[in-house]
Specification:
271 residues; alpha+beta; BirA Bifunctional Protein, domain 2; SH3 type barrels; 7-stranded mixed β-sheet; 12 strands; 29% strand
Length: 271
């Protein structure tokens, strides 16, 4: 384990107010906090342990995409979970939705509302503020889970080439002070605990009424497919979310609604 000299994230364990974050590793640089988190779980890391890094050299998002952030400008975090045997493993796919609720509720007030883009992004005015990547392996009937998230905190966390697609807490705070990374992370972890623990006990039903009002795609016309090949995407209206986190879409061309378990989803023009 390494830590950048003077880095305030080393103080996390002393700042947390719940179970999450009491065990903590901070690194100046890692390939991926999720990879280190998975290794730590195999070595016996406790439920609620956290891995952070100032910089990642191989950070990734959903569907293998990279996550870019300048060193020390944002949050690169992996939360480790040992939920034990799950009462309904088939509903475990909605974990990312619960994580989205927790992150959204733990943020400081921003100038514009934060939307949850199914299944794994937090957006402000259509621009990405944070992304989530959940990964798990099963040991018998019990999962070992890594909930990774990256959040753009300072304006330097968004590369110039992505400023039309991404935003930061600092930009959305305007003249208001920006929390320190350790204070913000402590707040986020407490909020994540308040969303994830009920989800682990009761499934999506436990956080449904907190998720749906913030979901930015329900009731709107969306495109579903590969964002790299938008011409082949299907269009339709997002109608509901199943207990396992899947999205249902009513096709624009008519016919039966179809279920989306894992795909790129974006608002269609005019949606």
């Amino acid at each position: 384990m390494s830590a950048a000299a003077g880095d305030e994230l080393r103080e996390l364990a002393a700042r947390v107010r719940g179970r999450y974050g009491r065990a903590h590793e901070h690194h100046a640089e890692l390939g991926s906090t999720n990879d280190r988190g998975a290794a730590w779980l195999r070595q016996g890391a406790p439920h609620g342990a956290v891995v952070t890094a100032d910089a990642q050299t191989a950070g990734r998002g959903r569907r293998g995409r990279s996550w870019q952030s300048s060193p020390g400008q944002g949050l690169c975090v992996s939360l480790l979970l040992r939920p034990g045997p799950l009462p309904a493993p088939s509903r475990f796919g909605a974990l990312g939705l619960a994580a989205g609720v927790g992150l959204r509720e733990g943020l400081p007030p921003l100038r514009q509302p934060v939307e949850l883009k199914w299944p794994n992004d937090l957006l402000v005015d259509g621009r990405k503020l944070a992304g989530i990547l959940c990964e798990a392996r099963w040991v018998g009937d019990e999962p070992e889970v890594v909930v990774g998230f990256g959040l753009n905190l300072h304006e330097g966390s968004v590369p110039p080439s992505l400023r039309e697609q991404a935003t930061s807490v600092a930009e959305q705070r305007g003249e208001a002070p920006v929390p320190t990374r350790v204070d913000l992370l402590a707040s986020l972890l407490l909020s994540l605990e308040g969303a994830i623990e009920p989800f682990l006990r009761e499934g999506f039903a436990a956080i449904r009424e907190r998720y749906l009002p913030a979901c930015g795609v329900l009731g709107r016309t969306i495109a579903v497919g590969d964002a790299g090949e938008p011409s082949s995407a299907r269009r339709g209206v997002a109608t509901r979310i199943d207990d396992d986190g899947a999205l249902w879409v009513r096709p624009a061309e008519g016919g039966a609604a179809f279920r989306v378990d894992s795909s790129d989803v974006w608002l269609a023009p005019g949606g």
